Amino acid sequence: MASTEQTVVQIKNATIVTNGGQKIWNGISLEMQRGVVHGIIGESGSGKSTLGFSLFGMVPKGCHLSYSTFTVLGEDVLTKRLGPKLFMVPQNPNGAFHPFRTIKSQVHDFFKLSGLDKISYESLFLIWDRLSIPRNHWTEYARTLSGGEKQRILLSLAFLRNPEILVLDEPTTGLDAFSEKIVLETVQNLAKMGMSVVFITHELRIVESLASQVTIMKQGEVIETIPVLNHNLEPKTEYGKQLKEASLLFQ
Questions:
Q1: Strand 196-201 relative to strand 165-169, pairing
Q2: 7-248: CATH architecture
Q3: How far apart are CA 166 and CA 155, in angstroms?
Q4: How far is residue 179's CA from residue 103's CA, in Å, rounded to a whole number?
Q5: Given the DSSP bridges, would you call strands 232-233 and 221-229 parallel, antiparallel or unpaired?
């Protein structure tokens, strides 16, 4: 793989092994480019969510990561922490919020920890308006909000944080059609702003609609990485073709 100054993630021959010898990854290699949406798709247990966390230097407990190259924004993933330059929206947004605290108090803590103290709350509310988040949610407890609303609040924080890389782990799972539409439009807008987006999902129709590159994973291996042309993915491998055929059944 030829690296350029536009490469934000470069992984060569990366393997994750449990203490018991089980391989979670088996020598994966891929690159991600600046300012594009890079889709990661595959069945459950393929190692795609592990990939999202690994960009932060995090590996599953009781596991060891080895590689020939693993750089994020030009830095070795295990020797330099790049937290301020990355942002993750987890698969379950409930885990990002304390159910018995108000959104206001939790966002205030986020501002302090992120060094965003000088940003006005009005700036946040303007983003909320764009994401169709009711302003009265500001004083409500997290437990009273839906998963889609929490997902959008996390995306509003990503707008403010303006990271170089945004990682989204199954961001549309369980969302209603309205929330899904807003999330996908927001992802497209963030990429247009120059943000690199890692979009982890099992829904091929979604990555076809917004990704520029797609990596297909299966059982801890990268099966192929291919471009999306005119919102259409044309896999070259047999497994990739099977995923494509399966997705057509639900259209």
A1: parallel
A2: 3-Layer(aba) Sandwich (3.40)
A3: 9
A4: 19
A5: antiparallel
Tell me if 69 sits within 8 A of 10, measured CB to CB.
Answer: yes
DSSP 9-45: EEEEEEEEEETTS-EEEEEEEEEEETTSEEEEEE-TT
Residues 87-121: pLDDT tens digits? Answer: 998 888 888 899 999 999 999 888 888 777 667 78
Phi/psi of residue 115, each to 5°? 70, 30
| 3-class SS of residue 200 | strand
**Which pLDDT tens digit goes with each residue over 185-196?**
888 888 888 899
Tell me how far CA of residue 197 lies from CA of 12, 110, 116, 181, 232, in angstroms. Answer: 20, 21, 22, 17, 19
The Cβ of residue 194 has, within 10 Å, a number of other Cβ atoms equal to 11
Measured in Å, how far apart are the chain's first and last C-alpha atoms? 34
Closest CA to 206 of 228, 234, 236, 238: 228
The pTM of this model reads 0.88
| Cα separation, 183 vs 107, whole angstroms | 19
